[in-house]
Design goal:
Beta-Lactamase, five-stranded antiparallel beta sheet, elongated
């Protein structure tokens, strides 16, 4: 009962089947048999109702019947339950042919699973954000500048939390439209997956900033002094952060002085990451990083040629949730420099900030280091 002209589909990875007007399988390739966890022999010549009792009462069969009777193409995502109660999802494209209907089936089970996981992640993130937001509000109520701080926090939270979550939702919608096994769409899916991952990472970065500030203000930071290679630490963090650089943006680094220093390595790392990420974010040009060590101090300087900070905003940059007036289109929480300043103060250091609009910003940190001997 095989329809010879359809043999060209025998080796196709996508499922191809032809149903005649008596609802019999007149052609199925091996992929169809694999999708149904059966064999071609068990399908050919039999009606759909014989192979799958009750199928005539399903939504899929109604769509198939419409395609058969009205001679129109249809597209449908079918949820298929196997005898062991596990489920598979297949995108079906139905096309009228002289024998009846040709059905092209693509296994989209993995895409469906990913979508469900992302939806669960979205809900989990929203729950975590709601929890953390309530904690932050309770903490802010204890401060003298309650009304000002609360206003700034609500503004930041509503913008910075909704943006990544909105990106995740939009990306899920986009994924639904790119299930075709075409290389072009495969690349588009990878791009969307990267966008989702970036959005999720942004959420965690925002939460980590809130957590870091909370620990500092409640004196919960434990100091851990180590002897470490200053140059190696900065170099490794630069290499790690190159991934967030813009096209053609470079990070140029130079170091002078001894390599080994003794201080709180984790705080130095956090200070540098915050300053460097800002330089990359607010500039399209190269970023210059210079480190230096003397007998008593370690120096860190990061300079960019970015948008700079307006004069009216410079005195307020170290206030919580405050963001310069020219950064409304750039994502940020207004906490990065606050955290940097508090970490520098914990290490008895000093911070020097210079900036000019459209010419860039230079931040220099000077921190005393301990005697290694």
């Amino acid at each position: 009962m095989m329809v010879d002209k359809y043999k060209i589909f025998d080796e196709l990875l996508e499922g191809v089947q032809v149903i005649n007007k008596k609802w019999q399988y007149v052609y199925v390739n091996q992929a169809v048999a694999n999708h149904g966890k059966t064999t071609q022999k068990q399908l050919l010549g039999k009606t759909m109702m014989e192979v799958f009792p009750g199928i005539e009462n399903t939504e899929m069969f109604s769509v198939l019947k419409k395609c058969m009777l009205k001679q129109i193409s249809e597209r449908f995502v079918n949820e298929f339950e196997y005898p062991d109660k596990s489920k598979g999802y297949f995108e079906l494209r139905m096309q009228p042919v002289p024998e009846g209907v040709l059905i092209l089936s693509i296994d989209v089970t993995e895409e469906k699973r990913l979508k469900i996981e992302l939806q669960n992640l979205n809900k989990h993130l929203e729950h975590k954000i709601n929890q953390r937001t309530k904690e932050l509000v309770r903490s802010l109520e204890k401060e003298k500048e309650l009304n000002v701080l609360k206003s700034r926090f609500v503004s930041v939270a509503s913008h910075e939390f909704k943006t990544p979550l909105g990106a995740i939702k939009i990306s899920l919608d986009v994924l639904e439209n790119y299930n075709d096994p075409i290389p072009e769409y495969t690349e588009q899916r990878k791009e969307v997956y990267g966008y989702i991952k970036s959005s999720v990472n942004s959420m965690f970065e925002i939460l980590n900033e809130y957590l870091s500030l909370d620990k500092i203000e409640h004196n919960n930071h434990d100091s851990h002094v180590h002897v470490f290679d200053y140059n190696e630490l900065i170099f490794s963090e630069i290499e790690r952060m190159r991934i967030i650089c813009k096209d053609n943006q470079k990070i140029n680094y130079s170091h002078t002085g001894k390599l080994l220093i003794k201080t709180d390595k984790q705080l130095i790392k956090s200070i540098f990451i915050n300053i460097l990420s800002n330089a990359i974010k607010y500039s399209d040009d190269d970023v210059e990083v210079v480190t230096e060590t003397t007998k008593k101090y370690m120096v860190l300087k990061v300079a960019d040629k970015g948008i700079g900070v307006p004069a009216k905003d410079r005195k307020k940059l170290f206030q919580k949730y405050y963001r310069a007036s020219n950064t409304s289109d750039i994502q940020g929480t207004g906490l990065g420099l606050v955290i940097v300043k508090k970490y520098v103060e914990l290490l008895d250091g000093k911070i020097d900030f210079k900036s000019e609009v459209k010419k860039g910003t230079t931040i220099q940190i000077k921190i005393p280091i301990r005697d290694i001997n």
